[in-house]
Design brief:
369 residues, 5-stranded parallel beta sheet, Rossmann fold, alpha+beta, 6-stranded antiparallel beta sheet, Jelly Rolls, 21 strands
Length: 369
Amino acid sequence: MKVLITGAGGFIGKNLVAELKNQGISEVFEYTSKTDSLDFDKYCKEADFIFHLAGVNRPKSQSEYMEGNYGFTNDLINKLKKYNNLCPIVFSSSIQSSLDNAYGLSKKNAEKLLLKYSEDTGAKVIIYRFPNVFGKWCKPNYNSVVATFCNNIINDLPITINDEEKIMKLVYIDDVISELISSLNGKGNLVEDFYEVPEFYTVSLGEVAQLIYSFNRNQKELSIPDFSNEFTKKLYSTYLSYLPKEKLKYPLKMNIDERGSFTEFLKTPDRGQISINISKPQITKGNHWHHSKNEKFLVVSGVGIIRIRKLNSDEIYEYHVNGLKMEVIDIPVGCVHNIENIGVEDMVTVMWANECFDKNNPDTYYMEV
């Protein structure tokens, strides 16, 4: 199949091109403003399916809206007529097409043009009225508030919020691409007269800003957001895509002594924390117990023994652990425990605790196993 994408260099276009290639589409014709007119003719002649994503949304003058959105759509239709190509067309419109502004009117007129073309020729036309789309590769300080907030907050630049209570309808780029590919396969989500992405989010401008500010604190706090919320998960993925290379790497505080080191890696308010413990050869760590704190130990490198004894018992359970055969050991409450490196190299253990360490209430009591 040969698929033509107009606006292939734009935000949605880049993501669509990447996923179509992932899915093994044999030929993807990428039309941008720099594409040669002869190549565009060839694309229109040979295309089996068209995603018409090209358009103007931040022109220097109001007249460019109609030229870029209606005028280019008319050019596309005329070329298809020239080659008698009645392949399906998916058009990227906007929810603003129902508004009385220059951009909305240009999109509305392009919709009418395509619907008339479909009526006259029988060619299938699918129109999506997209709300605000967010995700990776969207240009900041252009026409996406999410992209602008992510970029500016990451780089300690100011953001402008005129109305924190303003409600926005947002849709994630991966959901958009999934829906577009569904339309390619004849399974688009038709709602009344137009198609739409099933998964969208209604949030206030203030909520979006607060979330992104919280993401910006994550590295210092060693925290991660609550990913049970789908919008938060997708917004966080978007946020990370704007990190400059120097902020992709950050140090952790290693608590080092003669026995090795202990380093906190991740903390969450509801799923506990993960730490990395390094034990020197022949060193034993632990020898304590907890009332409520429970843990999981996973040795990923080296060899050792984990010992567990119920508080009021003399019986000791011993578990030989080895990074070559990874096994998780649960540490129950009310049990004294330790971990000994019996090898000749450092032993590395990933340790999970069901709660973050609280120096004012450590719930840790020294006792020999």
